[in-house]
Amino acid sequence: MIVLRHIDLLAGQAEFIHSGEIPADWEERISGLVEVFRSLQLSEISVGVLNGALQRRFTLRNPELVPRRKQDSESAATVAVQTEAASHLLWHRWTLLDGCPIYDVRFLHAMDGLSELSRYVGLLLATYGHPKSHLTQLHIAVHEICANIIEHGQRIADAGHLDVHLELGEGEIRGWVQDTCKWFDPTMVQPARSTQLAASRLRRGYGITLIQALLDTLHHDFNSIGNRITFSKGISK
Amino acid sequence: MLLTGHLDADAAPDAADTLRSMLEHGCRDLELDCTGLQFISSTGIGTIVAVVGEYRDLGGEVVLRHLAPGIREIFESLDLLDYVTVL
In what side-by-side order are the strands of the sheet with A172-178? Predict the structure, then answer.
């Protein structure tokens, strides 16, 4: 297993840790992460195995990319990135498990950050490389889940945030969206019939129907943090 | 007319304004080339539905062409292919 331990934008360095012997195909295994680096306009300058640890070095190409250290309870090594184009992104973490990237990102709970969140999620999903039509639909479903819980979420604290987790499983992509809000279960909302909405010229109301139509499983939990919507969608090459 | 990129809550109001402006200036039959449309949210779908209705009210028609398979299936999932003309 290869895990991205931390990414340090100040030093321009990412450190991967691994258990056991470093696999010969490790470059291929981290290719998904490299795509994300590229999309963040990070330019690689060297790759190698240094001091027994996989390391990938890169330089910052985008002058607007301003690293901002932000400690979080789960990983002190996580470095948050704040850019003008990504002002709502608090932190992100990528982990490789058997060559498949697992993504965790945290965004501010704010409607004006939804578009940014959605585009970032789309970027991450694209690295899974499965048929674009499936990924587009999953992207839209995750967008609608986030839109719903941002719109309806009444935050428990001012510093509310939204966590999105994505992972590639056997024949499916799984994930969850977690908020820090009071109880709200979008899966309990009875979707309106789209044809009736259209006939009534209604511009709103399609979101819940989309979520339910596009996902294979959808589950709501209310935990000590807030609401968690867990979902999965089957994919095939 | 080309519809490209992301049609979400950020982009939908401008898109709706443009399509309505064309209607006000006499356009009745509108063909939207969606080759470059990468993403559409529920707000974007609602906007398309509303604009289709407004064109029909004035005897016109809006046709969506070249939708990506994943996005076409979304209109299908919502049973909107009977309402929105997708070619």
Answer: A89-97, A100-108, A161-169, A172-178, A227-234, A217-222
Cα A124 to Cα A128: distance, rounded to the nearest angstrom: 7
Query: pLDDT tens across A153-203, in order?
Result: 777 766 688 999 999 888 899 999 999 988 888 777 776 676 766 666 666
Q: Compare CB distances from B46 to A136, A143, A204 and report the shortest one's residue.
A: A204
Alpha-carbon gap, residue A129 to A138, rounded angstroms: 13
The span from the CA of B47 to the CA of A154, in Å, is: 27
- The pLDDT tens digits of the residues spanning B7-65 come to 998 899 999 999 999 999 999 999 999 999 999 999 999 999 999 999 999 999 999 99
Token duo for residue A118: 């959605």
Helix and strand totals (H; E) in chain B: 3, 5
Rounded to an integer, what distance in angstroms lies between the CA atom of residue A220 and that of residue A181? 13
Nearest by CB to residue B74, choosing from A118, A137, A193, is A137
Q: CB contact, 8 Å: A118 with chain B?
A: yes
Could you give the CA distance from residue A140 to residue A12 in angstroms, rounded to a whole number? 33
> Is A196 in contact with A133 (CB distance < 8 Å)?
no
Query: Measured between beta carbons, which residues in chain B are less than 8 angstroms from residue A197?
Result: 46, 49
Size of interface A-B (CB pairs under 8 A): 91
User: For helices A114-126 and A31-39, what crossing angle results, to 10°?
Assistant: 150
Predicted-complex ipTM score = 0.85
Residue with tokens 């990129």: B5
